[in-house]
Amino acid sequence: MGIIIKAENLGKKYIIGHQRRERYITLRDIVMHKMLGIGQRILHPLSPNKEAVTLEEFWALKDINFEIEQGDRVGIIGRNGAGKSTLLKILSRITEPTTGKVRLKGRVASLLEVGTGFHPELTGRENIYLNGAILGMAGAEIKRKFDDIVAFAEVEKFLDTPVKHYSSGMYVRLAFAVAAHLEPEILIVDEVLAVGDAQFQKKCLGKMEEVGSEGRTVLLVSHNMAAIQSLCDRVILLNHGSVVNDGNPDEVIQAYTSLLSEISSRPLEDRNDRKGNGKVRFTAVGFQNTNGEPCSVALSGQNLQIVCTYRCLTPIKDGKTMFSIAIETLTGEKLLLFRNDYTGNLFDEIPIEGMLICTVPRLPLIPGIYRITICAENTQDVMDLVFHAAELQVTEGDYFGTGRVKNPKFGPFLAEHTWEILGAPLRRDVHD
Question: Could you say which of 3.30.450.20, 3.30.2010.10, 3.40.50.720, 3.40.50.300 is the CATH number of the domain covering 68-262?
Answer without folding.
Answer: 3.40.50.300
